[in-house]
């Protein structure tokens, strides 16, 4: 399925999502690796198979290397764990949990296989999808240390939001048709 096919698969009530998907695919604030990696990481965070396959194919066609594709998937994987853990720490009233070591392996954060800024952008989008405020604050602060403009961070957040919505609409439509 191509991006155009994916957009055409959206029902009429989701026309705004289709338009946003098109404009974000043409986004120029982020470089191609940042943009397509954000699409891939976001798709893997939501887990809708058609969206994953379509966006991986679009990312490859857009020049995303296999190494960057793997790193984007790794961002979704590690954030899938971290976002649940750190969101729970934030939500639990007992502050003692925040003083305990996590004792979770997170080696990919130190050596993601791509530029640190790119991995942080992908992690930011996935953290937004997964709703972890602590992780969003942490990744946004790291991006600011690298002088990444707010507009670039916002672009990654917009991609994550649209990929999430497109995935959920398609999953909902498939469930309604079953």
Describe this structure in words.
This protein has 178 residues and is mainly alpha-helical. The protein has one domain: AhpD-like. It is 72% helix and 0% strand. The chain is built from eight helices and no strands. The chain has helices at residues 3-9, 15-25, 32-46, 49-61, 66-91, 116-130, 133-145, 150-177. Helix 6 crosses helix 8 (150-177). The longest helix has 28 residues, at 150-177. The two termini are 21 Å apart.
List keywords for this structure.
178 residues, mainly alpha, AhpD-like, 8 helices, globular
Question: Would you kindly provide a brief summary of this structure?
Answer:
With 178 residues, this protein is an all-alpha fold.
Fold topology:
Layout: H1 3-9, H2 15-25, H3 32-46, H4 49-61, H5 66-91, H6 116-130, H7 133-145, H8 150-177
Shape: globular
Could you say what the CATH topology is called?
Answer: AhpD-like
Write down the overall mean pLDDT. 96
Helix coverage percent: over 70%
Task: Name the structural class.
Answer: mainly alpha
Percent strand: under 5%
Task: Tell me the number of helical segments per DSSP (H or I, 4 or more residues long).
Answer: 8
Low-confidence stretches: none
- CATH homologous superfamily? AhpD-like
Identify the CATH class: Mainly Alpha
Succession of helices and strands: HHHHHHHH
